[in-house]
Specification:
The protein has 341 residues and is an alpha/beta fold. The protein has 15 helices and 12 strands. The strands form 4 sheets. A 5-stranded parallel β-sheet has the order 4-5-8-3-9, with helices on both faces. A 3-stranded mixed β-sheet has the order 10-11-12. The protein is globular. The chain binds adenosine-5'-triphosphate and magnesium ion. The site of magnesium ion has 3 residues, from helix 3.
């Protein structure tokens, strides 16, 4: 399915399951996060034009994506931005924190949103802002209070709450209805939530109730995030938390094969240019996944291992026009270059 076209399909027809299906084409696994994001984006669209449903004002629910490194947080949001029918911009909290002029940076971010909306201020005011690396705002030990990380959060708080921000000399943008999605790896959060269990909801014996309580207890609480430098006001403004899971070896194999632009597909296309068919056995994918799993950086190391495996092939193919097919049975064996007659 291609990204549904804004002009062709009325916005109300883009249901949460359609958004999730689109995400499925590029992002493997992470079903919980996909559901939460799809529902949030769907609700965000639906709200337009009627901020009051049945006389009740519908508040937006900004989202926090939490998950280990290399498991798809940035990828999910980038993919979402392609299907979103509202202007979508991304920013990086680390670079905001490095800037001397945080407010100017934020103005520039909102200006980009306006540019994405082709200058239509009403459309821009319904946009989505994605802020990545939000867990990297922690002040390092020697620094004073009120340093960069906190300044960034205060500046962001203002626009998350809804503010009128001047853009240039003539225009102002109202940020009340802009949806904010933040993401961060929050390394070590698992152990923080685990130790906090006992202080959460009190356990009971009844097993069904126990399940609900377990779920509530395992929720990430705003207080868990303080250790990462998030100030209470900021953590409190991200009410929806979506957790991404560690990628299993099976998921790592699927990541190399299944997405539309998977590594396997990319290299098959590269070799096709030279008239060569590439075939890699499942066993080889599993070996790569096992190696990548040990590196503990999610799917990030897959490409490196994959390219290393293919390097001898890519080196030889241009000099060997008679080769028509390359077969790789194992990561630990030489690739077979076949001349088909
Ligand atoms: N669930 C997934 N499905 C498909 N590809 C994935 C998935 N997770 C990661 N990848 C691959 O790994 C790369 C890195 O993932 P991504 O940038 O989304 O990580 P991240 O969760 O944002 O990590 P970090 O916390 O380090 O920023 C992606 O470009 C993609 O190629
Ligand atoms: Mg990322």
């Amino acid at each position: 399915m291609d990204a549904p076209n804004a002009q062709q399909t009325p916005a109300k027809k883009l249901t949460p399951s359609m958004i999730a299906n689109y995400l499925d084409q590029y992002v493997v696994g992470q079903d919980d996060a996909k559901k939460i994001l799809s529902v949030a984006v769907y609700s965000h669209y639906r709200k337009f034009g009627k901020r009051q449903l049945g006389g009740v004002e519908i508040a937006k629910s900004n989202i926090l994506l939490i998950g280990p490194t290399g498991t798809g947080k940035t990828l999910l949001c980038e993919t979402l931005s392609r299907i979103a029918r509202v202007p979508f911009v991304t920013a990086n909290a680390t670079s905001l924190a490095q800037s001397k002029y945080v407010n100017e940076e934020i103005e520039a971010l909102l200006q980009r949103l306006l540019d994405k909306a082709a200058g239509d201020i009403v459309h821009a005011q319904r946009g989505i802002v994605f802020i990545d690396e939000i867990d990297k705002l922690k002040t390092s030990d020697g620094e004073q209070r009120g340093t960069s990380g906190e300044r960034v959060q205060h500046a962001l708080l203002k626009i998350m709450e809804g503010a009128s921000v001047r853009l240039g000399s003539t225009q102002t943008i109202d940020t009340t209805d802009i949806l904010f999605i933040c993401a961060g790896a929050f390394v070590g959060l698992d152990s923080i939530t685990a130790t906090n269990h006992a202080f959460g909801f009190i356990s009971v014996d009844d097993s069904d109730n126990q399940k609900v309580l377990d779920r509530l207890n395992s929720r990430v609480k705003p207080t868990d995030l303080f250790k990462f430098g998030l100030i209470p006001e900021f953590a409190g403004r991200l009410p929806v938390v979506a957790n991404l899971q560690h990628l299993s070896k099976e998921l790592l194999v699927r990541i190399m094969i299944e997405p539309r632009n998977s590594i396997y597909n990319q290299f098959r296309e590269v070799l096709k240019e030279d008239g060569v068919e590439l075939e890699i056995a499942h066993a080889a994918f599993l070996q790569i996944a096992e190696m990548a799993f040990e590196y503990k950086v999610g799917a990030r190391s897959l490409r490196g291992i994959f390219e290393e495996m293919l390097a001898p092939v890519l080196f030889q193919i241009p000099d060997r026009p008679e080769v028509r097919k390359v077969v790789i049975e194992s990561l630990y064996e030489e690739p077979q270059l076949l001349v088909v007659v």
